[in-house]
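Section 4.2 – Deliverable D4.2 (structural model, holo form)

The reporting period included a commitment to supply a predicted holo structure for the target in complex with adenosine-5'-triphosphate. Inputs used:
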Amino acid sequence: MLTNIDINKMNHLLETNEDARQIITQLLKNHQEAVSLISHEIRNPLTLISSSLQIMELEHPEVKEFFNWKQTMDDVDFMCSLLNELSDYNNGNTLHLSVFSIEQLLKNIAVSFAISLESEQSVHPIEFTSRIMPDMGSFTGDKIKLEEVILNLLRNAKDAVMEQSYRKIRLTADRIDDRIVIRCKDNGCGIPEDLQKTIFEPFITHKPGGTGLGLAVSKRIIEAHKGTLSFESKKGPGTTFTVSLPI
Ligand SMILES: Nc1ncnc2c1ncn2[C@@H]1O[C@H](COP(=O)(O)OP(=O)(O)OP(=O)(O)O)[C@@H](O)[C@H]1O
Ligand SMILES: [Mg+2]
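Output (structure tokens):
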């Protein structure tokens, strides 16, 4: 992650050194193109899966009775939208605003997450609970990007509790004055103090197979909504991430 000092140095080079300006501009362009390309390649097979599901639904309408069907269709739609967003990386910080019920969004996420836990329950199941305050009013924001943030926090919480024998995750949301405050609390391993300073930096991961992008992207999204993303963590009680969004 570039620090402010790096960015100042880069801006200085961009202004004063024509060769450096050309190389930096090209590198940034290549980087954006690589992200767009990867997203595009993943989106293609996903679009095929989505079409197959729609055909299945048309030819066998009874599948709609299956209790996970609608959620599965919604999740595939969500992934398609997410990849669209990524391939539109050049506008990474641009929000696509709409007015929606944050209560409904969070309830849908909670159901989706609970289903995903059910499908992989093990000897030590995860106790997932949620309490979403009713009547929080309508919210203007980027629905898809906010869903991505909450799912990132829930997935991190899930990874964190895996080593515990009693595993708990709780999602809460409240309207406090002119803010929506969403908390994701787990009783997992906690974040060691020496790692706490860097967890929001991209590519910082302490998991095999992690990209270390989850929290970096989440912070950017919340800050683009003029909100804050913070956490409190201790070995023992676990970790609570707090998203605070102005209405
Ligand atoms: N709830 C949590 N409890 C304990 N540690 C956490 C928690 N959330 C994040 N972390 C730590 O912060 C690091 C960075 O998290 P981040 O979501 O950015 O990346 P990741 O989860 O490692 O990978 P990715 O999200 O890309 O799969 C994690 O590797 C983990 O060490
Ligand atoms: Mg993560």
